[in-house]
Amino acid sequence: MNxxxxxxxxxxxxxxREKDDLAEVETISKVxxxxxxxxxxYTNELEAMQSSAHVCPECWICWEVTDAAGQDIRPMxxxxxxxxxxxxxxxxx
Length: 93
Known about the structure:
Elements: H1 2-6, E1 10-20, E2 25-34, E3 39-47, E4 58-67, E5 77-82, H2 83-92
Antiparallel strand pairs: 1-2, 2-3, 3-4, 4-5
């Protein structure tokens, strides 16, 4: 995840954005290929509602290693309920 966030040694090979106006949800999906052959997928479901600048808005974020390219990667899947939680985890790991 840090390589993706820092833009190092990865290429985005797939990207999509879908908006469900009825449910007021936007889904962003991306797939990255690391130079090591590892493939990582990312999904972020955001509610379209406005939130306060002082509150980290609730969303659903999922990072998953979909092809480990023979490497022992842990965790293979990580989920977050807001961007603040994701940022804190990245700082600690």
